[in-house]
Amino acid sequence: MEPKIKENRWNKDIEAEIKKFWLEKKLNDFDPKIDKPVFSIDTPPPYPSGKPWHIGATAHYSMIDTVARTGRMSGFNVLFPTGIDRNGLPVELYTEKKNNISMHKIPREEFVKLCAESLDDLEAYMIEIMQSFGWSGDMKKFRYRTDSPEYRKLTQETFIELWNKGLIYEDTRPNNYDIKTRTTIADAEIEYQDIQTKLVYLKFRIKETGRDIIIATTRPELIFSCAAVLYNPSDERYNKLGKKTVVTPIGDEVPLIAHPYAKVEFGSGVVMICSYGDYADVRIFRELKLKEKICIDENGRMNKNAGKYAGLNIKEAREEIIKEFKNENKVDKIEEIMHRTPMSERGKCPIEIIPMKEWYLKQMEFKDVLRKFANEIKFHPEDKRQILLDWIESVSMDWPITRRRFYGTEVPIWYCKKCNTPHVPKPGKYYQPWKDAATFKKCEKCGNEEFVGDSRTFDTWMDSSISALFISGYKRDEELFAKAFPVTIRPQAKEIIRTWLYYTMLRTYLLTGKNVFKHVWVSGHGVDEHGVKMSKSLGNVVDPVPVIEKYGGDAFRFWNMSEATLGSDFRYSEDKIQSAQKFLTKLWNISRFISMFPVKKTAKELQPADRWVLAELNKAVAKSAAGYGDFNFFVPANEMKQFSWNIFADHYLEMVKARAYNNDLSALYTLHYCLQSIIKMLAPISPFITEKVWLSLYSKESIHLEEFPKPNKKAGEELCKLTDLIIKTNSEIWKFKKEKGLALNSELKKVILPESLRDFSEDLKSMHRITTLEFGKELSIE
RNA sequence: GGGCUUGUGGCCUAGUGGUUAUGGCGUCCGCCUUACACGCGGGAGGUCCCCAGUUCGAAUCUGGGCAGGCCCACCA
Q1: Å: A363 CA to B57 C1'
Q2: Does residue A199 approach strand B to less than 7 Å at its CB?
Q3: CA-based torsion, A685, A688, A691, A693: positive or negative
Q4: In this structure, how many other beta carbons lie within 10 angstroms of the beta carbon of residue A170?
Q5: Euclidean distance between CA atoms A77 and A732, whole angstroms
Q6: For strand B, which residues in window 204-223 of chain A come within 7 Å by CB?
Q7: Which nucleotides of B are covered by protein (CB under 7 A)?
């Protein structure tokens, strides 16, 4: 008999041919007219961060693709956009490096243009990788970039909406400031260096008792900004003092407060809190509601609050103050220490923390509603909800949304040149206030006719947090929005729960009053062979391109889905990918074997062995379906592998061969039914090989238009209790032949089978070449 | 330092109170048995991190400890 499937190996080169087929059939294009409920996916738009792309990220996206394919095979019209995130700091840094320029030294217009262009090659590279593993996202109408005018328009439009609702206000925010380049810098641009510095022990005085209290500091020049003095509540040297006032060496009076931030063992155990030496100071100022007093200006010089030191730079001021305090006997001692100092990557100087005016979005008053929403969303896996709840709990201030950067969505505000009153334009356009003329004639407050545009951009999470609204058509396609919102599922990585997920829920609630997602799916991340997170600095990032080229998209996908359960980290290992490839070959050869026999769609009476294997199939399908229901692909990948290899191929195929070659209707029906079920259950995980088998044997249309199989009613569920005995019996007979040095296809004179296997006797007899078969209590072989 | 989380044969993994703990990788032995040598068959290999408790019974529940991972903060 000639098999319809000729080759005896799954050839990954067939994947290209399948991709062409999908393209011709327009399988990936979302059609809003299809009459099925919409399953919308807020895909994380990948960030083009450089080459190589992280193999863990690649695996992450292949799983997200499987989320989409699961939706399709569960009977939904799947809206699966393809987005690329292109805003923010990494773009700027990449552009500076690539073109060997400095953001602050060339005209903004030119820099922004270079940014927009610089990522095109990286974007193309990522899209190519995505397609190499079978990415089924929409590449036409629902393909987007977060730096497109259309997307940025929505960021601004929604900001204006929030502005009009009174949710935006201005306040100062301590910024990381590089006094050399005179720019604020992002946290990511800070590097920590150990620098030798003086730890100065200063004498303060307790006002009520007149006794000295010693305080150690590396920043004596900040004495002008000191607002409190802390000791640890458990510190017995101080905790009996009670409520006291402390007089600083310059005569200011500040409170002495018990606070766990002060470490008993460091310095003298007492710390002064100044605005601002570091972010701990910022936190404590907020917490204790202290009044800030700034003594350093934006040029890195002491201001008028520093009295006679005004005008000196920080270093000079520090030297002078130490000298003076020494003369006045206000210094107890000085130690040289190594101090971990936050430095600016750009100016190569220590950063200063300087408060500047920024716009804020209110969030503190919405924590309760967000907590409620967090509890209403279905999380996959369930335990990841806690990360979000903990984060909501810990939010302690409103969200500062403006950044002093260049490549991002511009803040659409113009200020009156005379009275500085902010003016926000009408929504519906993409505004660039740093170069566009104001859209107002007169200041609504003072009537002045000149305006100056805001030069800042938004925090990139302002863009990212509207992705769900953008893809579901908010403000742009009301018909789609009605069907696609709330968004069915948000797939994402766990490390951005506190940012992307949280901010998306916040923004969407403030704009629509609704809970944005029904499901949130959280994956772990890829780690290297030793269990360490891959990162560029460690040099352990694995390039996905050669791996996919070598093994193909399906093997890559089957590997990562079968590697780790949902939410836990998965290890890269080439051995494991090889074993995934072996399974695909096994599946291919199972299909090749079955392709020898004609397809029979029905059979009246089924033989016991057939009813048995269908029952085992039903079990595997049910468990896999439950796995898909939880978007946990680890379950169907392993369940279907286990069934098709260890039960179906190893035992059933051997048992049924004789009947199959004799064209027994029951056997042919069961073989094809099982194969169809297996490939359908694996189609979302390995879309290429399943498509190829399906098209070769069963249809001209794609398997990805099918739905998951329902339980087969002809199955004999009661026979499952014999599965262990069947496997054990076969094993015993094989072992017997091996021990006697017999070939597996040699004949056995007489075998006594357990009575309960009587129904399977004909199949077992031909499978093991048994001449005389009898039945008894237990197995016996001659 | 704070929070979260994990700890099962050499490696990875299933298993959440009940007889000899699941599967894979690797390893060892034997086989080209007409779907597959990227295969088939057989074997070796485990104090289920440690201690205490609850229970007739614990890998599974409780407490403590140890070790790892992640996120955040970071030493005046």
Answers
A1: 52
A2: yes
A3: negative
A4: 12
A5: 50
A6: 215-219
A7: 3-6, 12-15, 23-26, 30-43, 68-76
Q: How far, in Å, CA of A419 to CA of A78, rounded? A: 52
d(CA A700, CA A697): 9
Cα–Cα dist A46/A440, whole Å: 38
Task: List the beta bridge partners of residue A416.
Answer: A451
Q: Nearest CA to A305 among A270, A274, A328?
A: A274
Element (H, E) at A530: none
CA A499 to each of CA A281, A492, A495, A502: distance values in angstroms, whole numbers, following the listed order:
24, 11, 8, 5
Q: Are the CB atoms for A404 and A109 separated by under 8 Å?
A: no
SS3 A135: coil
The answer to whether the beta carbon of residue A568 comes closer than 7 angstroms to any atom of strand B is yes
Here the tokens at position A762 are 């004909």
Question: Among A28, A58, A72, which residue's Cα sits nearest to residue A132?
Answer: A58
Closest nucleotide over all strands to A262 (CA to C1'): B76
Residues lying close to strand B (Cβ under 7 A), chosen from 487-516 of chain A, are 494-495, 498
Q: What Å value separates CA A749 and C1' B32?
A: 25
Spatial separation of the C-alpha atoms in residues A727 and A646, rounded to whole Å: 9
- Cβ neighbours of A563 (radius 10 Å): 22
- What values do phi and psi take at A268, rounded to 5? -95, 0
Using alpha carbons, select from A188, A235, A195, A196 the residue that is nearest to residue A214.
A235
SS3 content of chain A, % helix, strand, coil (to 5): 45, 20, 35
Question: E strands within A12-167?
Answer: 38-40, 77-79, 81-84, 138-145
3-state DSSP assignment of residue A490: strand
Measure CA to C1' and name the residue nearest B30: A738
**pLDDT at residue A530 in the model:** 67
- Cα torsion for A86, A90, A95, A101, to the nearest 10°? 150
- Residue A5: count other Cβ atoms within 10 Å of its Cβ: 18
Judge contact between A201 and A321, C-beta under 8 A: no
Both tokens assigned to A775: 């039945």
Q: Above 70 in pLDDT, residue A692?
A: yes
- Residue A497 contacts residue A491 (beta carbons within 8 Å): no
CB of A531 lies under 7 Å from some atom of strand B:
yes
A184, exposed or middle or buried, with CB in 10 Å at 0-12, 13-18, 19+? buried
Nearest DNA or RNA nucleotide to A232 (CA to C1'): B76
Q: List, for residues A138-193, the tens digit of each pLDDT value.
A: 999 999 999 999 999 999 999 999 999 999 999 888 888 888 777 777 776 777 77
Evaluate if the CB of A11 falls below 7 Å from strand B. Answer: no
Strand B contact at CB of residue A537, distance < 7 A: no
Using the structure block, give the residue that is written with the tokens 């980290």: A569
Enter the tokens of residue A255: 């409170």
Question: ipTM value of the model?
Answer: 0.91
**β-pair type (A517-523, A378-380):** parallel
pLDDT above 90 as % of chain A:
59
Q: How would you classify residue A751: left for phi > 0, otherwise alpha for psi between -120 and 50, otherwise beta?
A: beta
pTM for this predicted structure: 0.91
Helices (H) then strands (E): counts for chain A:
24, 28
Q: Give the CA A744 to C1' B40 distance in Å.
A: 9
User: In terms of DSSP bridges, do strands A138-145 and A81-84 run parallel, antiparallel, or are they unpaired?
Assistant: parallel
In Å, what is the separation between the CA of A284 and the C1' of B74?
A: 14
Question: Residue A649, CB, less than 7 Å from strand B?
Answer: yes
Show the tokens assigned to A618.
Answer: 């039903």
State, as a whole number of angstroms, the distance between the CA of A583 and the C1' of B64: 46
A332 Cβ within 7 A of any nucleic strand B atom:
no
> Which amino acid is residue A384, in one-letter code?
K
Query: Does strand B come within 7 Å of the CB of A538?
Result: no
Residue A537: pLDDT band (50, 70, 90) is: low
Structure tokens at A337: 């220490």
